[in-house]
Amino acid sequence: MQPTILVTGGAGFIGSNFVRAWMAAETDTVVNLDKLTYAGNRASLADLDGDPRHVFVHGDIADATLVAQLLGQHRPRAIVHFAAESHVDRSISGPAPFVQTNVVGTFTLLEAAREYWSRAPSGERDAFRFLHVSTDEVYGSLAPDDRPFTERSRYAPNSPYAASKAGADHLVRSYRHTYGLPTLIGNCSNNYGPYQFPEKLIPLTIFNALRGGRIPVYGDGAQVRDWLHVSDHCAALRTMLAHAAPGATYNIGGNAERANLEVVRALCALVDAMRPEGAPRSRLIEHVADRPGHDRRYAIDGSAIARDLGWRPRVAFDEGLRATIEWYLANGAWVDSVTSGEYRRWIDVQYCVSRRA
Ligand code: NAD
Ligand code: TYD
Fold it and tell me: What is the H or E stretch that residue 309 is in?
């Protein structure tokens, strides 16, 4: 049988980058299970249309019958689980889908994986991996002088999004501990790069800088995030699948801590240099009401994955930002296709009603 992996959420930002990189680097078939929520776009995978190694399945990870059928039919050697509701602001205005997909959906997937794995022949059972893609936000917020998060940091999720991801992490951990399922967890910092839906800080800033819209900065803009180019995250996940010991958890970061205002100003300056008409974009920056419960700082200690697996981030932040703007400039059709109806409704509610300065 053709070696196969099952990817969930492969039509989203990180998932689509992962599938593309996987297809280029490996020989496996990819079965891609995605519900195509507002964040999932077939257009992000258009270049793979017609490739027999990419099998797209439109469906929900919380559909136990569908997931069991896919596992039985394709017999994957790994599940790489990206599917989630992923936007903190949306989790604040409507947390229910976060609990449903991130907690119940992950539980459903784990149950199906346990059933499939426990009945597999011993060779397949030994090789199988369940790789759960998670976030540094499960650890809560750091003070300016705190040490970065390690794999031993206490879980202290602050948003409904982070709490739902923490719940999923705990379920994955328990399936390792109780049933021996060969799980892996990656807790990664903020990603950026091509195909990111323009509701997150970096693509939203690029989108608005290019079209002359206002650029919203929450509160004082001094909140700090660690930024990792999505290609580096995907490489880290491939490395974990190939080399990490079952049960391992790794923090994955970019060694690029930046304050939000610094990121927004850097993007404005880069867009000004590439498209001088309309400069200076910094005039578009507008401080708006802060996010409730806003975490002040995230930072990752990535020494464990570097030491154990030799993975380190390669893309320098400034270079990654420049390449990301170039990608958005060259892919106007993709941007247009994802910024229609539902997107406009979200922007209206989020920025024009609830956050009017
Ligand atoms: P995204 O919102 O861009 O994509 C999520 C994908 O999951 C979409 O294609 C969506 O259609 C799909 N999906 C949602 N609910 C589903 C369901 N019930 N069944 C099947 N598919 C469903 O998210 P992303 O930014 O690509 O994040 C991917 C994963 O990485 C998430 O688990 C997220 O928590 C994690 N993560 C993201 C970041 C980041 O900075 N974006 C950082 C660390 C970890
Ligand atoms: P975001 O991209 O939503 O990722 P996360 O909340 O998962 O870290 O936000 C990154 C940072 O940027 C976060 O501190 C919130 C802030 N932010 C703004 O200041 N303005 C915005 O319009 C958005 C979307 C985010």
Answer: helix 303-309
